[in-house]
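for the writeup, i need someone to sanity check this before i put it in the appendix. the sequnce is what the collaborator sent (i think, or maybe the updated version? ugh). structure was predicted straight from it, no edits. if anything looks off just tell me and ill rerun, i have time this weekend
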Amino acid sequence: MALHPQHQAHDWIGQMEQIRLRTLEAIQRQWPPSSPAVQTLTHNFLLLYANVEELGQPDEFIPRQARHLLDSVTERTLRFNKLCTLVNPEWQDITGGMELLMQGMQALLAKK
């Protein structure tokens, strides 16, 4: 949060919760990752990780952050999510939303 002085912790958490709810809606409505709604969600999600300087250059930051997040997914992360879903089926909402956002990032990068 030190790099995000424009966000208080409770505001950042609130914005993440809104993205979670909107991804659930997108999944329920079966919106494709390349749809304008999912692309907007993807942009909003990625911008939550931008610092003050990066917010001024979203066209550079967003693809760079998308590549970073896509490259950081490991087999261990995927196994962890599967185990969490087995223990707590509600975790599927989170993993499903993240999967849609990751697909949104792939669609975003495919356009570049």
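The mean pLDDT is 90. The chain has six helices and no strands.
thx in advance!!
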